[in-house]
Amino acid sequence: MHHPAWASPIGARKRSRAQDALRRIAQSLDVPVEVLMQNAQSEFYPDATAEMVRLWFKIWSQEGRDVVLKVIREIAQKAEAELE
Predict the structure, then answer these.
(1) CA-CA 20 to 30 A from 74: which of 36, 42, 52, 66?
(2) How far, in Å, CA of 47 to CA of 39, rounded?
(3) CB atoms inside a 10 Å sphere around CB 69
């Protein structure tokens, strides 16, 4: 499901930036982008991925982003371990 604003050139640029951010986050977490999108497609968390990307862009310092990635990696690793 796409946001209606994404049909415009400005919306397309926003979508491209969001997609680039998701790709970079997924690479940092060493997971496929689809993993990040799974919960975003859920009826319970429709805006989770968009919120994560929005918040990510508010963190300007590399130190802050490193902290966020460390926490997310730990949570992802714990979730993976629980599935095994």
Answers:
(1) 42
(2) 9
(3) 14
